[in-house]
Amino acid sequence: MASNLGTLFRISTFGESHGVGVGVVVDGCPPRIALSEADLQYELDRRRPGQSKIVTPRKEDDRAEILSGVLDGQTLGTPIGILVRNTDQRPSAYTEMQTAYRPSHADYTYDAKFGIRAVSGGGRSSARETIGRVAGGAIARKVLQSTLPNYEAVAYVKTIQGLTANVDPSTVTAEQVESNIVRTGDPAMVEPMIDLITQVRSEGNSVGGVIECVIRGVPPGLGEPVFDRLEADLGKAMLSLPATKGFEVGSGFSGTLLTGREHNDEFYMDGDRVRTRTNRSGGIQGGISNGEDIVFRVAFKPTATILIEQKTITNTHEETTLAARGRHDACVLPRAVPMVEAMVHLVLVDHWLRQKAMA
Amino acid sequence: MASNLGTLFRISTFGESHGVGVGVVVDGCPPRIALSEADLQYELDRRRPGQSKIVTPRKEDDRAEILSGVLDGQTLGTPIGILVRNTDQRPSAYTEMQTAYRPSHADYTYDAKFGIRAVSGGGRSSARETIGRVAGGAIARKVLQSTLPNYEAVAYVKTIQGLTANVDPSTVTAEQVESNIVRTGDPAMVEPMIDLITQVRSEGNSVGGVIECVIRGVPPGLGEPVFDRLEADLGKAMLSLPATKGFEVGSGFSGTLLTGREHNDEFYMDGDRVRTRTNRSGGIQGGISNGEDIVFRVAFKPTATILIEQKTITNTHEETTLAARGRHDACVLPRAVPMVEAMVHLVLVDHWLRQKAMA
Amino acid sequence: MASNLGTLFRISTFGESHGVGVGVVVDGCPPRIALSEADLQYELDRRRPGQSKIVTPRKEDDRAEILSGVLDGQTLGTPIGILVRNTDQRPSAYTEMQTAYRPSHADYTYDAKFGIRAVSGGGRSSARETIGRVAGGAIARKVLQSTLPNYEAVAYVKTIQGLTANVDPSTVTAEQVESNIVRTGDPAMVEPMIDLITQVRSEGNSVGGVIECVIRGVPPGLGEPVFDRLEADLGKAMLSLPATKGFEVGSGFSGTLLTGREHNDEFYMDGDRVRTRTNRSGGIQGGISNGEDIVFRVAFKPTATILIEQKTITNTHEETTLAARGRHDACVLPRAVPMVEAMVHLVLVDHWLRQKAMA
Amino acid sequence: MASNLGTLFRISTFGESHGVGVGVVVDGCPPRIALSEADLQYELDRRRPGQSKIVTPRKEDDRAEILSGVLDGQTLGTPIGILVRNTDQRPSAYTEMQTAYRPSHADYTYDAKFGIRAVSGGGRSSARETIGRVAGGAIARKVLQSTLPNYEAVAYVKTIQGLTANVDPSTVTAEQVESNIVRTGDPAMVEPMIDLITQVRSEGNSVGGVIECVIRGVPPGLGEPVFDRLEADLGKAMLSLPATKGFEVGSGFSGTLLTGREHNDEFYMDGDRVRTRTNRSGGIQGGISNGEDIVFRVAFKPTATILIEQKTITNTHEETTLAARGRHDACVLPRAVPMVEAMVHLVLVDHWLRQKAMA
Q1: What does the pLDDT look like over C116-137, one tens digit per residue?
Q2: Is B83 in Cβ contact with D67 (below 8 Å)?
Q3: D102 vs D126: CA distance, rounded Å
Q4: Domains of chain D with CATH codes
Q5: pTM over 0.90
Q6: Angle ∠(B55,B58,B61) on CA atoms, nearest 5
Q7: Does the structure's ipTM exceed the value 0.95?
Q8: Chain B residues lying within 8 Å of A265, measured CB to CB
Q9: CB D358 to CB A28 under 8 A?
């Protein structure tokens, strides 16, 4: 099923939404990195349901238990097993979905692929699967920051449907993003975005948007042409998150409207440091980091599970209608911000270790 | 350097632009697939320089020699080695680049990563590296079509800078695309696009755009959640191509402007086949193909190498100016169309074999 | 740290001897395979300490909890997480080893590699790590037997130090092996072997030996030349078990005493089945199974941890002496039998799935 | 078909015995390593047919052409493609084998697996495939010696059938081994071994033996428990060579005759260096190098292809007899010595790079 990611720093996630629990095994973490359950919990709390009025009210503590690989607050260099037990399960909310496929959800394709499916809670296709990623990402960040003290990734909500936040990726801080429940970096957009999500939710509908992310403190030289270009691995990591439909780095799709002369980033010397005057490259050239901020955007579609009645079919291929019940996110973006950052850490730490091996 | 791709159907490409040659080893190709050098040559000819007046006039025959893995027109199940020798090299055109870094090219980042660089022809960062991919993709296509007779991937130029082709992905044919040198599917846009490229080129400038691709005949069930989702692997494959800045599938970035009710694809029965009335999912749900056409778009930036003078620095970190010489593409998109298709074939064949193993 | 094994059927083990627990994530298990915790427990009970008078008296229930990937007794095709909590820990027995390196154990090399070490219980270097393998192997066996009903692997103790069991690999049964606590297939050797182990143990010493294994019901065609030959992957799997020093297949080292004429296995037809009259090849030719029984042997050294005083050094590089305390196996072979079988299942299921993909 | 090996330093070999040629792509080689075709040729000459009167008289120059990855005598950090064209092919010698399966050769199993087979020259199952390994190994050695100046691997013929060389692994030199065509380290055994091979060959028969290898200059800390133990990866590498039947490290199978007290290697301080007084561990403890010489042995069976008539079957499953013709090695061991060393270099360089990443 390919729940593995990474060449040297490898994670293997496991778990269904309504099973015993979800978790991850992190293999290839260097030894002697300071690590505690609190490091994991901070990120898991940013991801968990019930954290604010605009996310699903499911009540999950999402307490991470470190099963192995850490002793007296330090990593051993051995695999780090992490388990989060599931607690708040209401399988009754999934009665109709036992037979009816949710439009644009994974219900039908899981059946088509596996011939079996954990209906309750969405099983493995639930966003609950990302707990293992977020826990793994928290470890990856600790590894990176142990050597690269200026390393950080700051993701934030750039748009919700038609609402666009005005954020400068070169100055936005994690504190600014974390100061509001929608996790945007533009104070003026906090209330409008909250209002929009609240409104859409009250209608039993859903809404999507774009998350932007800036990565700072990455030295030049990370990324492995040809296939494991840094933007290719970042793109894959982001597109592996549930509900994503697009990824762009630097100038992205709008960069296609410029000519080469307009698009190219001139080099100059900033003291003894090589810099570019503009950053349409988004911090990556030829698949390799150039030392500038890495900037990218990810498109998240409106959540598939809505409470409005829709036409669909059953698993025995009869036409029917379905109005979902249960407690679902009307907009995944606020909770997706830590997921995006986690995937960044996982990609970067792997490339960092690979470069260490070759340098 | 990570020039490997694939889990079961694996390619390893090699070669610098101005070295002995470029090529690929394809490992994991099933036995008894009909294969000839002509199968490869057809795709390589679509990729090669000098094929039309709007691409680089470099004269490369790009003749593929099959070194192994094929006997009497059939694959043996053993690795298929393929070599294309380089012929038309003019290292003199790279004199200035020996020291000056091209803005937004890989010159600086290769030096930062490797501490050494094959300047002439761009070395490994040259688009010439994609020859191995195109040859490998041609083999992948043969494998897929040997079992899935309706399988095909049709890529085409959707936009060049501000010019947008009007193409219906559900009906466009490979013949239509191949009938014009710009490889767009909209007859009305052929001349405007050719004129634009010609104009930009005459100015020593460059231009980018968007390639759209439709994949047909893919059965439901391909794609491996969690990390190896079909869109994630397609995204990575596309973003590993030179000059790419973005990838989106189905509704993509513009899908974020819809609500869930508007975005969801209703299921219905078409005879005994499960279908969706719309295809905003782009043929993939939960990371797994649903049997509808897979549709995605890739953004290509304007080529970095332009003949206009730009400010930059040297490899000894002094500020300078550079106006490139040599024979470069002012727009890579017409030649990128077969590259996109090749990457599709490589991703799909790998997922096809993986699904065969599990089913 | 590389606690992953397999291409399609992949296991990731985790856990230290005296940490929270040990376990495994099995990724790539096909869906709809019948599986219960009892399936795992049977094999874990064969592996666990305290099972008989000739193994370590540590009291571990080794109860396996399935965390994910199984619903209503069937695999889902998603990762199967398994956890066994540690219960009987006596860290006081490891006081001396906090500083003194056990000769021929992993104490020194773990420090040399990681710069940190979980002293208590041996941490990750403990044979307790094999719990994840045995659980994963039990699943692998279920997958294989669901399609290959005659598939089985029977391992047994062939020698303990100088004592050699007389066992015919072509007829020995699992029941015969399991009928005695030393797990040999020769009734005449049961008491002498038990006596030897008991004697050696009473002296605080240890003893090794050879395990032989026969694999039946494997169809021709499994194994991937060149590097992933079946004997190469079996050899790696066995040599990855603690305390192993050698591996041989078929005629092995003694086959080097024959000429080609004497060694070659003549083909003949047994009805419509291709057979060989002898089996010096051990069921594998050119790295690929030929349909005959696969037979191999593994050498296990005498356990490193003994209670007799030995000269050694401390972790601050001072010379000292050490007499281990604690409850250790004087002979690992009876408990290693299920480990060997588990590794066989893991190797075979991976090759079986790989061959399914290509056929 | 799995012709890839390695995690960071990865080789992909290709080629059939009687096709265009054989070769390798080496991916993950660090940049700025001095490398020339002469470095490869030295090792290829030790491997090639026709080098002495006791090996097959096939006349192959085995000239290596570096296709990529090297510029002005230095590696670029990009994939190194290497091609050796086949020249001396006599397909007529394989007429009978078109239908008759050679006993104990790969003829039958290749047909069983692939349903197709390159008969002439043995195709991919020919020892000619090892050219890519030997070339890759020569590069690996350069990488290792660029940082570890005392690193070396010396393999030598330990036994030919019943003849045993008396060689001290701690003092034997490459010059001593290379001074005689049988490549043993015992001057007294050179003539007896040559005589035996000559005699066996004159009878159209074949003979096997054991190669021993010592690896020096390996620092403590290489090897990745759990599955990628150093001895496990060495074992897999050796057992992936044609005609191998066994592998043992340090005390190996005979170590099972000792008690723990007799077998354990006491630690002591040699100045400021940690040493062991004996080396029954063979330089590896807990899967990790301990800084002592690594010593192992590999069993090679007598070659399957003999000129004596044997009973066998045809590919249409009729019983027949076969006496091979053609020019075959009566004993592969003298030519296998550089193959063993090459596999050592490939395993060690990969573990060296992996440890660099984690340290």
Answers
A1: 999 888 889 988 999 999 999 9
A2: yes
A3: 13
A4: 4-358 (3.60.150.10)
A5: yes
A6: 105
A7: yes
A8: 103-104
A9: yes
